[in-house]
Amino acid sequence: MQSSLYVALSAQVAMEKRLNTIANNVANMNTGGFRADEVKFEEILSLAAKENVSFASSGQNFVSRRTGPIVKTDNPLDVAIQGEAWFAFNGPNGAVYTRDGRFKMNENGDLLTVEGYPVLDAGGAPIALDPMVGSPTIGRDGTIMQGTNQVGAIGIFNLRNDSRLSRFGNSGVMSSIPGEVVQDFNSTGVQQGYSEGSNVNPVLEMTKMIAVQRNFDSAATTIQESESTLMDAIRTLGPSS
Q1: Which intervals hold domain Flagellar basal body rod protein N-terminal (predicted)?
Q2: Angle at 93 (CA atoms; ends 159, 143), nearest 5 degrees
Q3: 151, 136 contact by CB (below 8 A)
Q4: Residue 98 and residue 14 in one domain
Q5: Quick one: average pLDDT of 81-87?
Q6: C-alpha distance from residue 67 to each of 14, 81, 100, 120, 201 (Å)
Q7: 96-140 pLDDT, tens per residue?
Q8: Which residues constitute the domain of residue 180?
Q9: For 203-238, what is the HEC assignment?
Q10: Is 181 helix (H, G, I), strand (E, B) or coil?
């Protein structure tokens, strides 16, 4: 069978994955702290034919680390990170990192994420506040004060660039390399009364979707032309009656 048919099929597989990724990004454009999915494609070179043939890989997803917009909420339990760091919470299988700082406090004083997971301090321990005292004051370094007493500190972690991130829920990620506690708060810190939104650019994503759809249709046309050419060859070279 013609190589162009296989090449076009590999392109369609890659573009289908890209379309699914874009659709998921658009669906989460209003999810707090959401990080968009991107896809990395590689060229696969086949040496089976007389001439080298290049195919597109199916693509590998990775989580974008671009920051999202910071919005003022004036909620004392909302905190947004300035810089590239992450919060952490205790997931079912260990620490999960997130940029979504819309926290809440339950009746026992436990500091929780919006999904109800315990927020962790720098040592990886859950944070407990006093529910009978007024709203906490949260410093740039994550220190939590209630009145004149320090009751805890929100952990702030850096994730290495070479760590592999996999998704957990809507806005959480698990890292192949544990996060490193932030020590320098000159360029990194938290803002109380603010929250970070999704880093998805809906206009850009829709533009990408249109371009990918056009390329998908173009690949489909190539497949149809290849099949037509093959059938013509069979009819021409086949035995005559």
Answers
A1: 5-35
A2: 50
A3: yes
A4: no
A5: 95
A6: 27, 9, 11, 21, 11
A7: 999 999 999 999 999 999 999 999 999 999 999 999 888 899 999
A8: 70-196
A9: HHHHHHHHHHHHHHHHHHHHHHHHHHHHHHHHHHHC
A10: strand
| Mean of the per-residue pLDDT values of the chain | 85
Centre a 10 Å sphere on the Cβ of residue 132 and count the other Cβ atoms it contains: 7
Number of domains in the chain: 2
Rounded mean pLDDT of 146-170?
93
Say yes or no to pLDDT of 238 above 90.
no
Q: Are residues 52 and 128 in the same domain?
A: no
Query: Which residues contact residue 26 at a Cβ distance below 8 angstroms, ignoring those fewer than 6 apart?
Result: 200, 202, 205, 206, 209
Please report, rounded to a whole number, the percentage of residues in the chain having pLDDT higher than 70: 78
Say how far apart CA 97 and CA 20 lie, in whole Å.
24
**Alpha carbons 68 and 110: distance in angstroms, whole number:** 27
Left, alpha or beta for 9 (phi > 0: left; psi -120 to 50: alpha)? alpha
Residue-level pLDDT at 47:
44
Nearest-angstrom CA–CA distance, 233 and 87: 62
Q: Which two tokens stand for residue 121?
A: 């301090």
Asked whether the beta carbons of 81 and 98 are under 8 A apart, the reply is no
Token readout for 212 is 């990918």
Residues 79 and 50 in one domain: no
Going by C-alpha positions, the residue among 209, 220, 159 that lies closest to residue 9 is 220
Examine the domain organization and report whether 192 and 97 are in the same domain.
yes
CA dihedral in degrees (187, 191, 197, 201; nearest 10)? -40
Same domain for 175 and 225? no
pLDDT of residue 18: 84
Whether residue 74 is found in the same domain as residue 162: yes
pLDDT per residue as tens digits for the range 37-57? 887 755 444 444 455 555 455
Same domain, 102 and 175: yes
